[in-house]
């Protein structure tokens, strides 16, 4: 299982990558393996402000439906257009296939609740 060290993680199995003025959010390799074959994503919160740890959408797999939780407070700027037609890419490349692009309200984003790769591995028992 893959845990890129440059990413930060949540206890709810999302990853986040901070870029220049925005962040990309996706689900972890562990999460996609637990969910199984992903068939659909519903992210209705485009252009809205979503608070940290609030649900911003759902991911539907053959076996189950699971909520997606926002790692930081921010406005959803974009939903990855590729996943609408090809949600299975999340199973194939979970760290290359981001779900949403988020604009934090300012540069003072609280990262203290986010986990390093090592901390995340401990939580999931790897």
Walkthrough of the structure:
It is a single chain. This protein has 126 residues and is an alpha+beta fold. It has one domain: RNA polymerase II/Efflux pump adaptor protein, barrel-sandwich hybrid domain (OB fold (Dihydrolipoamide Acetyltransferase, E2P), Beta Barrel). 19% of the residues lie in helices and 33% in strands. It is built from four helices and nine strands. The strands form two sheets. The protein has a six-stranded antiparallel β-sheet. The protein has a three-stranded antiparallel β-sheet with strand order 4-6-7. The radius of gyration is 13 Å and the shape is globular.
Key traits:
126 residues; alpha+beta; OB fold (Dihydrolipoamide Acetyltransferase, E2P); three-stranded antiparallel beta sheet; 4 helices; Biotin_lipoyl; lipoyl
How many helices? 4
The tally of beta strands, per DSSP, is 9
What is the succession of H and E elements?
Answer: EEEHEEEEEHHEH
List unreliable stretches of 5+ residues. none
CATH superfamily: RNA polymerase II/Efflux pump adaptor protein, barrel-sandwich hybrid domain
What's the number of domains?
A: 1
Structural class: alpha+beta
Fold blueprint:
Layout: E1 8-9, E2 14-18, E3 23-27, H1 29-35, E4 38-42, E5 49-50, E6 55-61, E7 65-69, E8 74-79, H2 81-85, H3 89-92, E9 100-103, H4 117-124
Antiparallel strand pairs: 1-2, 2-3, 3-9, 4-6, 5-8, 6-7, 8-9
Question: Would you kindly provide a brief summary of this structure?
Answer:
With 126 residues, the protein is α+β, with helices and mostly antiparallel strands. It has 4 helices and 9 strands; from the N terminus they run βββαβββββααβα. A 6-stranded antiparallel β-sheet has the order 1-2-3-9-8-5. It has a 3-stranded antiparallel β-sheet with strand order 4-6-7.
């Amino acid at each position: 299982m893959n845990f890129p060290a440059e990413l930060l993680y949540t206890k709810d199995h999302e990853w986040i990558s901070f870029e220049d003025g925005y962040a990309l959010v996706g689900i972890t390799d562990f999460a996609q393996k637990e969910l199984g074959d992903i068939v659909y994503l519903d992210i209705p919160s485009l252009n809205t402000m979503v608070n940290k740890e609030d649900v911003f959408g759902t991911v539907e797999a053959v076996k189950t439906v699971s909520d997606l939780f926002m790692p930081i407070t921010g406005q959803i700027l974009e939903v990855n257009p590729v996943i609408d037609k090809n949600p299975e890419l999340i199973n194939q490349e979970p760290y290359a296939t981001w779900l949403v692009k988020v604009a934090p309200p300012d540069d003072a984003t609280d990262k203290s609740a986010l986990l390093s790769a090592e901390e995340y591995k401990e939580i999931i028992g790897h």
